[in-house]
Design a protein that fits this description.
Number of strands: 0
Helix content: 55-70%
Number of helices: 25
Radius of gyration: 27 Å
Oligomer: single chain
Structural class: mainly alpha
Largest sheet: none
Length: 570
């Protein structure tokens, strides 16, 4: 079994989880020919198109009836109130999710920073913070409050500073927990004892320097904190209570009086604000504010789409669909430079683009339904969490959502079908959220909730549930799959007779013959240089090493250069 042959780009993932998915994908694909792979792809689309509308209705009904039940003693009036809240909020979200090409800078900022705020934060918590942030922080009320000099922020400084204080906080808790085992007059042996009991690996390297010059005086700090009776719930509140130590740390910043730093530390006028301080989010807030403050164009969206972008509300098929997706990927690439891969899709969805936000919830639900080639249907939520941001997984979720949206479109009347299906599916698998009247999470850890609904839908559909071979074959032409995951089609195991078929119009050919690393590098350079004089440009002036290596490896395995570049650049 050639596990190494499957190249998933999952940076920084747990090695064991990474290995699990390699094994799963090898087992599922090692005996599969390109022909069988495409047949599987088309069959999934046929199933989505046949079963999607009924499943969507069943998901909506389950969320409305079951996810809104009051916790504790049942109260019919409270249940109806939660249902009304859910329907009204979803109607409001969907009505605002229409295509808005002339949105002004203020409207764009209001939408953009809120989508960044959702990144990595539980929806219920983020929603509450978003309501409060403009009232507490002038920058979020109006991007024109931003000033480049006043909002200086270096994320690397913040990372060193926060890690420094997190380690001090871990030591403080360790001292408090084991105070009874220490000598009355704390000495070096006590430091050694505490270090031996530390579960935090960083505490076992007490001489490491994270912030400032010189190593920590852990003996002095231990004596300082040994008899403390103070209680803290987080590292920041602990750090701010350390008086001169806190002030000394702040003084080490290159811009200690920065407004951004005050917001991150919830200090001065921002004391007590509701704000999830994360360095990556702050970098994005400031980058977008800076962009809008200096924007000179006619419409903000034109910066991302180009002046000739045409929004087509109808759901395309065939060659028009392929062209539309290619253009969408280019626009997404421009958004991603400011917002990142997933957050940019969240923003684009709320701006009316035909897309969903392929977050951990939606990706997990799609995998449970067996709608993804890139993820096994028995993957747990934890396993999906490890890889849901992988480019291949993201790309396939977007593709399958297009098929589902096209299936649902004739049955609903909203500006954006993608927005509608995203919100109902997400509310099925999400934690309780007061703003939506959601009190119960319907999807369990084992995925039983949605699977049971899906099985009931298929049983109810009966003969209508099974697509014919002719119908399934037509889906190759209806939704050409020139996407990133198709470049990873595995060839049959050595010794097996290979099956062949011509790719349907608009689809990407499966990789054929491996070439040398040197040859792949030459093709990479030639393709990239050719784009430098192209109008419009497809690729950036500089390509980071990660995407560059991934593209070269695809070319090595026989992928068409344009397909390889599109997989990681759009």
């Amino acid at each position: 079994m050639d596990v190494a042959a499957i190249d998933w780009q999952v940076g920084g993932q747990c090695a064991l989880m990474y290995y699990y998915f390699l094994i799963a994908m090898t087992v599922s694909n090692s005996m599969v020919s390109p022909e069988e792979y495409w047949q599987h792809n088309d069959l999934i689309n046929a199933q989505i198109f046949r079963q999607g509308p009924a499943l969507f209705d069943a998901v909506k009904q389950a969320v409305l009836d079951k996810a809104t039940v009051p916790v504790g003693v049942y109260d019919a009036a409270a249940h109806r109130a939660n249902q009304s809240t859910l329907l009204a909020t979803i109607d409001n979200v969907c009505s605002h999710g229409q295509w808005r090409p002339e949105i002004d800078a203020a409207g764009f900022w209001e939408l953009a920073w809120a989508r960044i705020a959702y990144q990595g934060t539980r929806a219920d918590k983020a929603s509450k913070e978003i309501d409060l942030m403009p009232k507490q922080i002038p920058l979020f009320a109006d991007f024109r409050a931003y000033d480049r000099d006043a909002y200086q922020f270096d994320k690397h400084e913040w990372m060193r500073f926060s890690q420094h204080w997190k380690r001090r906080f871990a030591w403080f808790k360790l001292v408090r927990r084991h105070r009874a085992r220490l000598a009355a007059e704390i000495g070096t042996p006590d430091i050694d004892l505490l270090t031996s009991m530390a579960l935090d690996a960083s505490l076992k390297e007490m001489g490491a320097v994270l912030w400032g010059e010189g190593a920590e005086d852990w003996l002095a700090l231990t004596r300082r904190w040994a008899d403390s009776r103070a209680k803290f719930t987080d590292w920041l509140s602990f750090a701010k209570a350390q008086n001169e130590l806190w002030e000394q740390s702040l003084a080490l910043f290159a811009h200690p009086r920065s407004e951004a730093l005050a917001i991150m530390t919830k200090s001065g006028p921002y004391e007590g604000i509701s704000f999830s301080a994360h360095h990556e989010k702050m970098v994005k807030y400031l980058a977008v504010a800076d962009f809008l403050k200096n924007f000179q164009g006619r419409h903000v969206l034109e910066y991302y789409t180009g002046a000739d972008y045409a929004h087509i509300p109808e759901h395309q098929s065939g060659e028009p669909y392929r062209l539309e997706r290619t253009r969408f990927q280019q626009v997404h690439g421009r958004f991603a430079r400011h917002f990142g891969q997933i957050t940019s899709l969240h923003l684009m969805m709320d701006l009316g683009f035909k897309t969903v936000k392929p977050d951990r919830v939606l990706t997990y639900l799609f995998s449970q339904l067996g709608w993804l080639i890139t993820l096994p249907a028995d993957a747990s939520q934890k396993q999906v969490l490890e890889v849901y941001t992988d480019s291949a997984v993201v790309s396939e979720v977007l593709y399958r959502a297009d098929v589902l949206a096209a299936a649902i479109a004739p049955h609903v009347c909203v500006p954006s079908v993608h927005r509608l299906l995203d919100i109902w599916f997400v509310k099925f698998g999400q934690e309780p959220e007061e703003q939506f009247g959601i009190t119960i999470r319907l999807e369990g850890e084992d995925g039983a909730g949605l699977k049971e609904i899906y099985e009931a839908v298929k049983e109810r559909l009966g003969d209508q549930n099974v697509p014919t071979e002719v119908e399934a074959a037509s889906f190759a032409r209806r939704w050409p799959a020139a996407e990133i995951w198709t470049a990873r089609v595995r060839t049959v195991r050595e010794g097996e007779p290979a099956k062949h078929r011509q790719p349907a119009s608009g689809t990407a050919p499966a990789p054929t013959k491996r070439i040398s690393r040197e040859a792949a590098e030459k093709i990479f350079v030639t393709t990239w240089r050719a784009d430098l004089s192209a109008v419009p440009r497809r690729y950036p002036d500089r390509i980071d090493n990660g995407p560059k290596e991934a593209i070269i490896r695809l070319i090595e395995r026989g992928a068409d250069p344009a397909t390889a570049f599109s997989a990681y650049m759009n």
